[in-house]
Structures are given as structure tokens and as C-alpha cells.
Amino acid sequence: MPRTDDPHPFIHRMRASGMSDTVIQSRLLLEGWPQEVIAPIFDARMGSAPVETSPVQEVFETTSPATSQAPRKYVRVVTVAAALFFLGIFGAFAYQYLQPPVVYSISLPQNNASSTSSLAYGALAALSDPDYYAQVKNTFTNEHTSFIDADLTQMTLTVYVNGTSTLTVPILAKGKVGSWWETPAGIYQIQSKEKNHFSSFGGVYQPWSLDFQGNFFIHGWPYYPDGTPVSTSYSGGCIRLSTGDAEKVYELASVGMPVIVYNAERQPDSFSYQLKAPSVSANEYLVADVTNGTVLASKNASVAAPIASISKLVSALAATEYINLDKTIVVPQSAIVYTSVPRLRAGADVRAYDLLLLMLQESSNEAAETLASSHGRMQFVDYMNDKAKAINLGHTVFSDPSGAKGDYSTPEDLFTLLRYIYDNRRFVFDITAGKLSGSAYGAPEFKNIQNFNTVKNAPAQLIGGKIGQTNEASETYAGVFSVMVGNVERQIAVIVLGSNDATGDVRKFLGFVHGLYAPGEEQAALSTRKIPVFTDQ
User: Phi/psi at 425 (nearest 5 deg)?
Assistant: First the structure.
């Protein structure tokens, strides 16, 4: 249900913390206030605001007739004293709460080069690489940057002030790995500070909250409105500290400060391959090992091409990070577009969770458009592009939440996307593979949902992926499969774009990996020398 209480106190706190009006509006939408309530408030702020009475004017205007008969000198003294008193209070308030946020300008080492580039905030799949993670921390400390380091493997959070470790505290809880509420690894910024944030999502108060990404916070021990602390098993995916430790971190933190959230290290992997490749119809493709990044076959892997409904993987990431999946969304008339299996009607109330299932399994364009409408279509597409930048998809652009037209990427970028979902958002893959079980959102509303992502007669098991087809893109596919290579099970990503038969091409690649790559007696010898990558340019 939409919130009906007055949003002005919330807006006041957010502005006091240094948050921009654009971010505040997004936060209000997340907290449940409808757009029609929010828009007039900010439209009025941009227009001609009413003239407010100054402290000095208040002194003169509230002076009674009896007081006006007093000597004017006395009135002037009282007036000036009162004015100075009010200005002093306002000055102290402004100094403490209205200071502009610190502007951080930081460089990060690139994945494949020794040079640096401007920091892009957001989840970075590269942070699963312990070597890259060490480079990031070294860069921050060498540049005397203040930042927060949340190590979800060791369950410790460290605050660095001017590059020096100043405070280390234990992390008491994080989101369960593989769940809907898994804490997302990556590089973020503190978006806002609240001494006691009320989470409408969890219905609890979160003391000493630092918002770093969508619905994810660093905070103290949550409690219910009646004062009862939440149980130790409760977690909404945030980084939970003790309340005392959270206050210490809160005092050292500032809006705009970088936050590194680091998950499990990728283990060293020396698995090697002998290289061959089949003939397929796809114009662009990439086949690679998810764990160690070995490229098994590629063609035009760095060329951008239309990706069709593969876009819906990123739509799903944006939806799960910015929308409460319990939320009911009214299907707008604009969402009734061409789709493979029409199920929605304008004006119907549908849970975001059910829309997510339709979008990822039946590739419903209607569901994608309805999810996008919850924040405004343009804003949702912006979320998608922001996510693409955040996870290092440098040659990917979105203009449509369903992938119907105007969405482009490269096989290399899509491999990075698949790797990110595999490491950080596995439940998205579980939905696309039809394996989701024990969902917190209950049984789906729609029955007999078809799954278009399966590849029939494939010599491998689908872990997760997405199929697509448009006139512009022809047929496309991006997925991760569990493939037996000899007697070893490997996770293989297969991306095909511009294909005449996407599932047929995928099936050929899976058969080629399963049948022609052979770890075994030669593996030790192969791992000691560099193997050339097969290309068919």
C-alpha cells in the first residue's frame, strides 16, 4: 500500500545529510510514497517559493501595541539581540548539517592494464578477484582516501581515514549467499546518513544507518516499533553491526565516502583446455570458463550488436535492487505491448515478484514494461545503464527495459554480466532455469509459466541464462551451463548474437566443449604453457 503520511520530515532529514533532490525523490519512491505526492513538492521547490519571514521580521511583526510604546532604543536592542540569537542557532545548524558533501575523486587500476581510470561506483564483479581487490585498497590508501572496507569473507568492517586504518569492527550479519537478500559485492558511495532509519521494507528501525546502494545499508542492531530487537536469524541483506560499533562508524563516515563490499575470494584455478571449435550461424559469439576465464572459442567478441531479451537480465538486477518484490504494481496501458505470451491487462494489480517470473522465463515484454513503470520508464532505464557501468560493461547501452529495440552489447561484456550474476545474484539464474525453490514470496500467481531459456537435448545442465529474438537482433542467447569436461564438471558461459538458430548454436558449443576438451593426463603439461585462444574472425 502507498504511504499516506507526510514526507516533509523525511525530505528535511535527507537534505540535511547533503543528499541531492534527485536522490531524495528516488528514496521516497523506494519508501512507498506515490509519484503524485512527491512531484508537487519538488516542483514547488523549483518554482516561486513563498517568501519566508526572517527572524528580524518576526520580532517586529509580533510586537504588541503596548511594547511599541516603549523607547525605540530598547526595541532596537531587543530586536538585534533576538536576530543574533536566531542567526547563531541557524549558523550552528548549517555548520553541522548543511555542509556540502565531500567530493571524492579517486582512480582505480583497470583489470587489464597498469593505467588508471575514473572510479565508477557500483557493483564490480572484478572484486571477486583477490589481486584486483588488493590493488583497489592500495590505490585508496596511497591516495590518502577515506573509505569503508566491508570484508564479507572475514566478516569485518574497517574505516580508513585519509588512507589509514582507524577503526575495525565485526560484522554481525550479512545477506545469505544465494538468497534474494544477498549483500551485493562492489564499490559504492554513502548516499545518506540517518541516526535512526525506519525501513518500510522490513518494518524495523535501523540505528546509525548509512545507505550505500538502493535498499542496502550499514547499520546497528534493528528493532521493531515496540522496541523488540530482531532475532539473530533475521537479515534483509544489509551489513549489520552492533549498535555501539555502528555509531562509531557513523561518526567517521560522510556522504560520498567510498564503500568497498568484498565477497569470497576466487580460488586459484589452473584448469586448462585443448582448443577446437564448431561451425555455427552466429555473427558474434564467445565461449569461456566462468571460473578461470579461459576463452574456448570466440568470434567478433568485442563487437557491439543488438542483444534482444538478454537485456532482461539487467532489468531483473535493477528490479531486485530498487523495487520491493512484495509490492503490487498497477499495469499501465503503455505496458500492453507485443509479447510472446500475453498475460497482463491494463489496470490489473500484479506483484513485482510475479512480473519478474514472467519477464525472465516467458520473456514477457509486458512484465518488463510494468516493472519499469514503477519508477518511471526513463528512470528505470537509467538504473539499467548505471548498473551496466557499475559492473564494468563498458560497451553496453540500454534504451528499452525489455530489449525490444535499441539495446546493444558485446559478447565480452555479456560474459562479464553472466559472471557477475553467477557470483552475486544467483537467484536470478535460478529463475531463468526454472529451479527456484523455497521462495520467500510464495507460489507464483500465474500458472503453467513456460520457460523459453531451456536448450533441448543439450549435453549440459542450464545454470541460468536468457534467450532473445527480434527482427533487429535475429536470435540471441547468453547463459551458463554445467558441462562435464572429461571427468571434471565445469561452468561454461555461452554467448551467441546475430544467430539464425541460437539454441542450435548453443547446443553445438556445449557438445564441442563436452566432447572435444579433455582434462586428464595432459592437463599438468598444458597448465605449464600458454595455450593460444581460438578465434574465427
Answer: -140, 55
